[in-house]
Every structure is written in C-alpha cells, then in structure tokens.
Amino acid sequence: MDRRELARCLRVWRDRLNPQSAGLPAGGVRRAPGLRREEVARLAGLSVDYLTRLEQGRAGHPSASVVEALARALRLSDEENAHLFRLAGHADPRARPVTRHLTPGVQRMLDRLADTPVLVLDATWQTVAANSLLTALLGDMTEGTAREQNLLWRHFTGLPSRVVATAEQDAAFEAAAVADLRAAAGRFPDDEPLRTLISDLRGVSPRFDRLWQEHAVAHHTSSRKTIMHPQVGALTLDCDVLTVEGSGLRTVIYSAVPGSSDDHGLALLRTIGTQFASPLT
Predict the structure, then answer these.
(1) Who's near 27: CB < 8 A, 6+ residues apart?
(2) Which of 25, 69, 136, 257 is disulfide-compatible with 44, CB 3.0–4.6 A?
(3) For the HTH cro/C1-type domain, which residue ranges apply (predicted)?
C-alpha cells in the first residue's frame, strides 16, 4: 500500500469534481474547487474522519469495498479505478493477465488491410504482429530479442527508429506512453513480464523513471507521426489506436489524407514492398 500516493490521488480526484457532476446541489459559495470532504464521505458511505485520515495518509489498509465505494463517489475512469485499487494494496477485481494471443479476428483484419500499415501491440507495448506494409514502413518490428520488439523499450533506450519528432513531440509522447503503461500496471498488477519491463525501464532510463514517479494514469490514444523512410522520404501519417474489446490488444493503423503527398508516398511504398524492411537494430 502506498499511503502517500493514495492520499494525494484522493485529494486531486476530489478537487476536480464539481457538485453538479456528482449529483449534488451547488451549496453556495465554495472556498476551494471540487467537492467538500464531507460530500465525498457521504457519497461513499464513509465517515468524514476516516476519509480525512485517508487523505492525510494516516489511515490503515482500506478494504476492497471501501476502495470500490470511493471509486464510485469520485467518478473514476476504469484506468483510475485500477490505479486506486493498486495504491490501496488490492488487485483490481476486474484485472486479467495481459493478453498476448493474436485472436483470429485480429489476424483476419491484418490479412484484409493489406494496403494499410497495421501494427498490433499488447498492453505493455510489445509487438504481437504486423502486416507486410507496416514492415515496409517501419522496418521489421517482429525480429530481434523480446526487448527489441517492445516499442517503449526501443524509444527509451535509444534504439533505431524511422519516426522523427521534435523535442516537444517526444516529451508529449513519453508522458502519454508512461501514463498508459501505469494504467496497464493497475489493470494487470500480477503480470510478471509487465512488472519486469517497468523495473528494467526505470533502471536503464532516467527519463522514464522521472515520468514514472509523476504517477500520471491515462490511456494512450491516436496521434500523428512523421516517418522518414529511406526510399520514400518523409511521410506524416495519422496513427489511430483501436483497442480490441475483451482482449486488451491494440491495433495501430497508419493512414494518410487521401490525395496528399503522404498518400502518394504510401502508394509508392506498396509498390516497393518489403525489400527495404530489414530489422531496425
């Protein structure tokens, strides 16, 4: 149990709520943003004294039922709910091991989207599969050691990549990716490969370790990336991240605006194929 971080999160989550979003009357002038402590206590069915001790890091180990009540009262997202359970020293009751199995449906999607680069990742950012056009675009992401097939490991250890970004873009990606990995840690607290990855990343990358200690929790969504291909040149593509419901697998689909120079570049890449798709090691 991490009492100090639990206390901080409870205060932050309480401060971001307003009475209307929690189904409460506004109650006149408020000296501070968010809900009053007694309002959250009432919504969660707890005593104000106990909630005060939780928010000050002085309370004992809260039960799973108390954690669930607080999550409901604070209107937490699934990722935040999982994080709250972990901070309180409980496994998320909805957690399952990280899915690394490529389902038949996702395989069929890979087969049918032959003219679109598609990458499949698990919740730890480990490469599960890629179609031939993705391999032509980024290089062979399924070769090399297991660590070399993990996108976060590659990024934070400086392994070769065809993605080019400004310092600001890199910083935004890193913050979002680490927050996403922390959300995965909350969802899958007993997944040994995930725990080992986090420990190893903290040991090898000071930047990752600093971001990890910020305790941000979020789910990574879509973005735009510029890829410098050795034959086609620069391609700026939309990267839409779709989660496979019930499995946790993510499909990352790269696409260009129709008729744009980037679209023409992808068409040329389809012609070239995978002859320049050697591993990025």
Answers:
(1) 19, 36
(2) 69
(3) 30-81
195 SS3 class:
helix
CATH topology of domain 3-87: 434 Repressor (Amino-terminal Domain) (1.10.260)
Determine the topology of domain 104-272 in CATH: Beta-Lactamase (3.30.450)
Q: Of the candidates 74, 64, 69, which has an alpha carbon nearest to the alpha carbon of residue 9? A: 74
Please report where in the chains the tokens 């939780």 appear, as a residue: 54
Total-model pTM: 0.66
234 bridge partner residues: 228
Which pLDDT score is estimated for 281? Answer: 41
pLDDT given for residue 178 in this prediction: 94
| Sign of the CA dihedral running 50, 55, 58, 63 | positive
**Residues 68, 66: Cα–Cα separation, whole Å:** 5
Q: Who contacts 245 (Cβ-Cβ below 8 Å, separation ≥6)?
A: none
Predicted pLDDT at 192: 87
Residue type at position 21 = S
Classify 140 as helix, strand or coil.
Answer: coil
Helices 192-204, 167-187: crossing angle, 10 deg rounding: 150
Query: What is the amino acid identity at position 274?
Result: T
The whole-angstrom separation of Cα 41 and Cα 87 is 19
Domain(s) labelled CATH 1.10.260.40 in the chain stretch across: 3-87
C-alpha atoms less than 13 angstroms from C-alpha of 161 in its C-beta half-sphere: 19
DSSP letters spanning 147-186: GGGBHHHHHHTT---SEE--HHHHHHHHHHHHHHHHHHHH
